[in-house]
Task: inverse folding
């Protein structure tokens, strides 16, 4: 399908909102390492937090291409952390509710998510377990009408200031390796949940990342999300959306960094000439311009398959691998083309280089993407 006039109008509305409500505050939020809750509420009031969710719960029932617009525009705001925080809320955690939640769960949780009153976080990764989800150590067992959860989670985006965790835990000790996990909805303020550390990161300063401990955390049986023992498969399916969002952020932020660099080299002079007049620099611009466009088109191809409900694990992995690695190449080149200014903290390309280093790691490393691609290519 791709973009239509409806998507264009949404993009214009969103771009105005970002320019008015986000861009002027980026420096403050980066320094404080916190995004005010009011931003989520304003986004909810403007209809930006429930794009694909049912109208009955405050959503807009739009398509995944509208979510692509959301990611593309947020990537241009000047802070990878702000974009990451919002999209963790909208696309890397809460979509499991619309896909797997019961009618009771949807009614209970989704309206406050789309309004921005509840901020979501995804709690999968553990100190000793990352990509190997089947090896998670956090456990959950039944006790009457409750589940009791114990374990430690880390690298939890929105984990310090968020409200609702989507927690993966082992509910079986026997049986197939991939049939032992389940997902749970856990409020941060539930007794036994402790944020033990706010992690200090190289980039993504505006959004918090937490290490949390769950000790005898008791949640109702109704807080089981989806089927008991199907958590691994639920998580694996959800990762396709997360990877597409990460890929979209990567090429769009790369495009903004390129635009910033073009503006700089067309006004900066050296040896009596504009930097843009030097052939060696012009050719480097040509290379990264081509690579960004190639990444965009590869992502769009994967999005078209995903939006149509087709099997696209290989294509999504290719898009995520290529777009995120291109972002890191663009980061190197744009900092280099800015010279010393590109190494200063008040430089947009310097922040881009720190923030987008994450995306070859998050949502599945480049190494994992290559493994997935090769597996699908060889079978």
Result:
């Amino acid at each position: 399908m791709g973009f239509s006039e409806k998507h264009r109008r949404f993009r214009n509305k969103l771009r105005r909102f970002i320019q008015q409500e986000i861009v002027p505050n980026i420096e403050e939020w980066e320094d404080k390492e916190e995004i005010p809750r009011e931003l989520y509420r304003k986004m909810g009031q403007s209809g930006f937090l429930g794009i694909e969710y049912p109208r009955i719960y405050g959503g807009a029932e739009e398509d995944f291409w509208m979510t692509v617009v959301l990611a593309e525009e947020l990537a241009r705001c000047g802070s990878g952390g702000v974009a990451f925080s919002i999209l963790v809320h909208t696309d890397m955690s809460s979509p499991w509710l619309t896909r797997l939640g019961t009618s009771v769960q949807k009614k209970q949780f989704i309206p406050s998510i789309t309004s921005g009153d509840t901020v979501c976080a995804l709690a999968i990764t553990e100190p000793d377990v990352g990509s190997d989800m089947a090896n998670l150590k956090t456990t959950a067992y039944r006790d009457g009408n409750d589940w009791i959860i114990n374990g430690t989670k880390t690298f939890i985006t929105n984990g310090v200031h968020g409200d609702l965790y989507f927690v993966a835990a082992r509910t079986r000790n026997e049986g197939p390796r991939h049939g032992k996990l389940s997902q749970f909805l856990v409020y941060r303020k539930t007794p036994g949940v402790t944020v033990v550390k706010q992690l200090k990161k190289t980039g993504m300063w505006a959004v918090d990342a937490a290490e949390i401990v769950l000790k005898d955390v008791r949640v109702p049986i109704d807080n089981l999300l989806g089927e008991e023992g199907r958590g691994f498969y639920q998580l694996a399916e959800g990762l396709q959306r997360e990877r597409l969002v990460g890929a979209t952020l990567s090429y769009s932020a790369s495009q903004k960094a390129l635009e910033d660099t073009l503006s700089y080299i067309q006004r900066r002079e050296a040896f009596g000439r504009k930097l843009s007049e030097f052939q060696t620099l012009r050719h480097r611009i040509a290379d990264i311009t081509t690579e960004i466009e190639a990444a965009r088109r590869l992502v769009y191809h994967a999005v078209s398959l995903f939006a149509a409900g087709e099997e696209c694990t290989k294509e999504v992995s290719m898009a995520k691998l290529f777009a995120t690695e291109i972002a890191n190449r663009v980061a190197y080149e744009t900092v280099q083309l800015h010279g010393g200014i590109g190494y200063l903290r008040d430089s947009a390309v310097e922040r881009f280089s720190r923030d987008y280093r994450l995306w070859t790691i998050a949502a599945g490393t480049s190494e994992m993407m290559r493994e997935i691609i090769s597996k699908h290519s060889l079978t």
